[in-house]
Design brief:
Pfam family, one: SWIM
Protein name: SWIM zinc finger family protein
Number of strands: 4
Radius of gyration: 19 Å
GO molecular function: zinc ion binding
InterPro entries: Znf_SWIM
Keywords: Metal-binding, Zinc, Zinc-finger
Distance between the termini: 72 Å
Shape: globular
Structural class: alpha+beta
Helix content: 25-40%
Length: about 190
């Protein structure tokens, strides 16, 4: 008996993204998943990837929504192990994924932020699911994208810094990073250059 390969997530790297859309912990299938897969399969999602941030323009009929996905960064420990496993290769294989998991240094992809412009306002609306399936398909075609989504090149220590500033690529800045003494002062660009 032959089995048909998975449409989305046929590589180990893409399968991790599919697990975000179809978590193993759910007891029943998501009723939106078949429509989301159909949208992704038929080119209804236009992806823009900027490091860990992904924007998906999801078009369905005469409607369009924008889904925002932000993936968690990998730790510096994971990045070191992954660099050793990759060697001179730029494209991670399923074997590299298997060995990385066996090393104990790997943690699966996690979404830090999800948002959509649609009215549903849920963290797993149709558009976010379609975006995840489109990302999984893109990762299947180019597994190195999975590393870009996890900030592999810029992986830093995962402990917070004393200054309260955010790590590279983060959208958020801690309020404690601002100096309240000069919050209302106006400074010019030349003053910052000094």
């Amino acid at each position: 008996m032959t089995t048909t390969p998975a449409e989305f997530g046929f590589t180990a790297w893409g399968a991790e993204i599919v697990r975000l859309a179809e978590p193993l912990s759910t007891r029943t299938p998501n009723p939106l998943a078949p429509r989301a897969r159909s949208i992704a399969r038929n080119g209804g999602v236009t992806l823009t990837v900027d490091g860990r941030h992904v924007e998906g323009l999801v078009q369905r009929g005469g409607e369009a929504s924008v889904a925002h996905l932000e993936f968690s960064a990998m730790t510096s420990t994971t990045a070191v192990v992954l660099r050793d496993l990759l060697g001179s290769s730029a494209e991670p294989s399923d074997e590299v994924h298997r060995r990385l998991k066996e090393s104990g240094a790997w943690s699966p992809a996690v979404l830090d932020v999800t948002d959509c412009s649609c009215r549903a306002r849920g963290d797993r609306c149709l558009h976010i699911l379609a975006g995840l399936y489109a990302v999984a398909a893109a990762v299947d075609r180019q597994p190195s994208l999975a590393l870009e989504l996890r900030d592999f090149r810029a992986a830093t220590d995962d402990s917070p810094t004393d200054s309260g500033t955010c790590s590279p690529g983060s959208r958020w800045v801690s309020l404690t990073a601002f100096d309240v003494a000069d919050y209302y002062e106006i400074t010019t660009a030349s003053e910052h250059d000094d």
